[in-house]
Design brief:
By secondary structure, this protein is an alpha+beta fold. It is built from four helices and five strands. The longest helix has 16 residues.
Length: 124
């Protein structure tokens, strides 16, 4: 943590903390659920989650809530990612790190589901 020397330093720290807290707030623009149970982690969910978060950070998108769920479906479909945005829930299965990057950039940031990978889409 950087040393706080001035009032401006303190204001910058407060702004970054508020942005981080907003990601946990219920009024976030998007909610992403990632299956992080034993089967999901064994199938690569940790790498998918890291790639997703890295892409979101690259786009400076922090108006979301990320939830790690133990399971979101059958083990054969792991890793599973569900994106809740604009009143819809979209589920993606067997999500690789490359897929996670595209889901983050196209769906979470820009609001357009990746139709070739979406296996289920329903109104929230």
């Amino acid at each position: 943590m950087p040393k706080i020397n001035t009032l401006d330093d303190l204001k910058k720290l407060r702004e970054s903390a508020q942005a981080a807290l907003k990601t946990r707030a219920a009024e976030a623009k998007a909610r992403v659920r990632v299956s992080m149970g034993t089967a999901g982690i064994a199938a690569g969910a940790r790498e998918s989650l890291k790639a997703l978060m890295g892409e979101l950070e690259k786009h400076s998108f922090c108006d979301l809530q990320i939830v790690e769920d133990p399971t979101l479906g059958p083990d054969k479909n792991e890793p599973i990612v569900c994106v809740e945005r604009d009143g819809f829930v979209t589920q993606y299965v067997k999500v690789t790190a490359d897929m996670a990057r595209k889901i983050a950039a196209q769906h979470i940031v820009n609001g357009q589901a990746v139709s070739e990978w979406a296996v289920a889409r329903s109104k929230k």
